[in-house]
Design goal:
The protein is of the alpha+beta class. The chain has one domain: GMP Synthetase, Chain A, domain 3 (2-Layer Sandwich), CATH 3.30.300. The chain has three helices and six strands; from the N terminus they run βββαββααβ. The strands form two sheets. Strands 3-4-5-6 form a four-stranded mixed beta sheet. A two-stranded antiparallel ribbon has the order 1-2. β1 and β2 form a beta hairpin. The N terminus is likely disordered.
Length: 111
């Protein structure tokens, strides 16, 4: 599945295999990881003024994957958007992509 920005760059999401042994686990973002986590990072890094401060942590459970997003304090408003519209749009995209995996995915924006 490809997503394209208006200037023609694309991001390939690949496939998400979120199988676990039933144990909850936390993974830190290091640039090489889950395609969903990279997708969130890609979107947020293009919204904020300080992309180096963007950090996505993935918490995997049996049926749910929670993505915890942390950004610099001055960029919180840009990530949340007016009346929460930007955050809602990111959650809708994440939910739509995660439905194909059979797992429920949520995005939490943390301070």
């Amino acid at each position: 599945m490809n997503y394209r920005r208006s200037i023609g760059k694309s991001v390939h999401l690949g496939t998400f295999s979120g199988e676990t042994d039933g144990q909850d686990e936390t993974k830190e973002s290091n640039g090489k990881g889950n395609a969903m986590k990279e997708f969130i990072e890609y979107i947020v890094k293009h919204l904020v003024d300080n992309p180096d401060a963007v950090k996505v942590t993935e918490v995997v459970g049996e049926t749910t994957v929670v993505y915890e997003l942390r950004v610099a304090q001055p960029d919180m408003g840009k990530v949340i958007g007016k009346s929460g519209r930007t955050a809602h749009a990111m959650r809708v995209l994440l939910s739509a992509v995660s439905r194909k995996t059979g797992k429920h995915a949520t995005l939490e924006i943390l301070e």
